[in-house]
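User: For a reading group we're discussing how well predicted structures match intuition. Take ChaN family lipoprotein. Before you show the prediction, I'll give you the sequence so everyone sees exactly what went in.
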Amino acid sequence: MRLLPVLLLFLLSSLTALAAKLEVSAPDDRPAYRLFTADGKPVSFEKMTKELATADVVFFGEQHNDPLAHWLELQVAKELAQRKAGQLVLGLEMFERDVQPLVEQYNTGELDDKAFEEQSRPWPNYSTDYKPLLQLARQQKLRVVGTNVPRRYAQQVARQGVASLDALPTEEKAWLAPLPLVVDYTLPGYQQMAKMFGGSAAHGTAGPGLQQMIAAQALKDATMAHFIRQSRQPGQLLLHINGSFHSDNHDGIVHYLRQAEPQLRIRTISTVTQEQLQKLDKENLKKADYVLVVPADMTKTY
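Assistant: Thanks. Here is the predicted 3D structure of ChaN family lipoprotein, as structure tokens, for the group to look at:
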């Protein structure tokens, strides 16, 4: 009779272990996203954000119409706000330098939602995709910085070339990266732009029109890098939200930032879509320090 309790205990332990094993080995049911390192190794959100918190600047490269990326940006911002209490700055491509006073007034509560949205030229998907970040910043008292060049100057460069910026009034030049703007047409991202339009900027076959388009992109990258540097104090972490193309392959904004401050600890996240989420597709390896993979058939915001 004494053996019966022992046998029952053994049987219960075995069943518990088996259930745990089955639970661990069961396949995920339609995962919404996956995170990978640059080498394609799965990584947890907690491990990623712990490492991001050691950086000076973090670039979260998004697809502008991807709701999952926008949601995860908010989660990253919340986590980094805790890990870097009082030392987190939020930078946004989505707001241009000439509306920075409005961004600051909204952040401090001087402007209400209606006035801010009427005057600051927010993107069409602002209310669903970026407003939660600004609301978090107000709640957590995080500084918010619009880093992008006013669009009219990028359009001017695309039409007339970089030299046309020299004639701008001094007060308007304050919204741009310092001039003269140096464009390295051999950067992989800019070469990719050239190929999209059937040219090769690096080998002089792009033509002046295409080179001006690339220079307009470079003006955005250089301006964002400039105001990231200007807005971040020693010891602070600046989380910058931008389109993936601006920071993929440590290119674009990262290139200009490293030129100015090579010692900065920079980490990047890129958002990609894949048909499957089990492993990182070959073309997405090394794209960023961390890669956010979302399903190719995920609903888009526009």
